[in-house]
Here is the input.
Amino acid sequence: MLKINWFSPLPPARSGIAQNFAMQLLPALARHFEVVLWTDQDQVAPEVQRMARVARYAPDAPPWREINDGAISVYHLGNQPDLHGGIWQVSMCQPGIVVLHDLRLHDFFFTLWVQYRKDRASYLAALERWYGGEGRRAGEAFCRGGISPESMAQEFPLTREAVRGALGVVTHSSRALAELKETPVCPIIALDHPYVPAGEPRYRQWLAARTASPHPPYRLVVFGYLSRNRRLEAVLEALAGIPEREQFRLDVCGQLWDEGHIRNQIERFGLGSLVKLLGFLPESLVEQELSIADLAINLRYPSMGEASGSQLQFWDYGLPTLVTRTGWYASLPEDAVAFVRPEHEVEDIQSHLRAFLADPGAFRAMGERGRQSLENNDPEKYANTMAQFATMVLRRSPVVSALALAGRIGNDLSAWLHPAASSYLLDRASREIVAIWQGKTGSHDE
Amino acid sequence: MKVLVVTSGVPFIRGGAEILADNLCQALSAAGHTAELIFIPFKHYPPSRIPEHMLACRLLDLTETCGVRIDRVIGLKFPAYLTPHPNKVIWLLHQHRTAYELWDHPMAGDLIHHPDGPVVREAIRQADRELIPEAKAVYTLSENVSDRLRRFCGIAGEPLYNPPAHAALFHNNFAGDYFFFPSRVTGVKRQLLVIEALARCQERTLVRFAGEADSPRELAACVDAIRQLKVEDRVEWLGWISEEQKRELYANCLGVLFPPVDEDYGYVTLEAMLSSKPVITCADSGGPLEFVVDRQTGLVAAPTPESLARAMDALWADRRGAAAKGEAGRARYEGLKISWENVVEKLLC
Here is the structure.
């Protein structure tokens, strides 16, 4: 059984990766691998420690001797620097499989380098590395406040910076990665985000709770880590703009990127009696909230490219959902979600809310279809495919040394030899590197 | 024939492999060939240096010199044996061992402590698997080296034993009151294990250690252990000794201690046998086990201080038995027909 190092946010960290992804996947993963969970968090929930061995590392001085007992390391990266900064730091030292939970990682790098480390030079160097002078200039403008974060994430996602030197990359959305045009040079695989739905009896209980009060007001829910791209302002504007707004209640569950601003917006739109900010909810209250909700609003724009664990959770509860037609969401079945066009956001939200009022049953059927689609998200299938992928990329690991060596040779020669004179040498060296690492021998003159 | 012997090594470190390379050149010359040694310096740290040295060897052109063809290249050590040549034969002294069986060894493992250690290890293994079979023939230093090559790379190599330098000058005088342990002072030779065993011996055994330390740290560890275990009066620390001194120390000892970790070959064993002395080695010592027959030509102990102490006590208390085992060892050496003539014939055929 392959021994793997699993670097991931773990409960009680407030992240979907920790609370849902890891907890859903680990039992299946432990059947396919000998798993060591590496963490730099202060605390790890006891239930995690019952699933696999937990080991600690300091990002500045990882215990390589112990890490190297594993065959391969798997790094989970996303846009929360507090949770992923240490993981990324280790991944830069030792190549492994990078699992991209977000595909646009500009926010991650900016926050980590510029805000936390006060290292603007590394941030700008990364932009220049992947986007040339244009990237550097945009980064400088962004630091001066001249460009929006959304625009930087769209134009300069820095995805390749996150997977620099990786042996393999896992995404949960092949479509989103293809759209990004930031394809890494290593093998890539797209896996369906793992999810274990609740059993049928429990689901029936939720349905019963929801249908116990089939009349207005209907409960809308927005859920998760609520950064600017979750479009909460557009949701408030849309709700405020329809005469039927009194037929809805909106519960906002999760940490807000700027709670003061949202409170001002609620006041400005006159929605104080309709909207409640509930903050981060513990698991028991999540169930209570989702089982009585009627419609979930799960927008992303711009999308960071991620697959949404919370979308799978909404479907688990049979909740109809409004999603933005972008990134991973755009690939969801047409009959299992209601799409919102980014350029007609308020208009589309309002139209869906009216449609809901006209025929709530049609929306409930949409949620049912979403729940049925969860069979594609079997964690066992995920773990099994991950095992095959790990075995495949391990066989390729010598290529990493070869590429690093080629890079060093190129740098060295360019420092002292005229390009015209170095071409023969570069050709010779590259042929020999291929000979050494790919076995195409016989390069000597016979 | 014009023959180049290609090897690599660490500047200022001279051990069995360097002696072997010199002796091979001499044997080739003695057989009437024109032979020269190409020594490629090798720095194995940080790990990223290793692929650079591999590439450096691949870029060498040893096909001819001043328009004259070089008939044969004999590759000995990593990464020198990767050097290409249409008529290359490899006599594998050893592979880069910390990429193989010593990867996670508590004393010897080095790559394992580095973040890029795993990928460099795989690069070394890949290169060995792909490029060793380039050679027209693959011989190895010992059955132990052949076994590793087969186990890790799936490549067959025929063991080809060679005699120690100046084999004819080794002799036996009498059984003195000491064990002799000649070796570089380094973790894998396990001087520390012997010091710990010494402290557990029931007999008042005495050990004479000879050999230079690979690093001041290794030496300090031994000195500290001797002091802590209070065996100062039962240890003689000789440091570097001449070849003549070495032969005399062999000739006058009761027996020879040689308990290394998975040694490739181990001239010490052969030198002891030529000196008609019994050898105490360990069950995980590798090469010496191809020559030491337990309780016939020496004793094979478990690699623990207690087991090694029991073997030392047993030999110390039975001097007649020790002498008999030494004589049996000499007879066994004679029976193996180890000679440079045989080595040269195989490598040039």
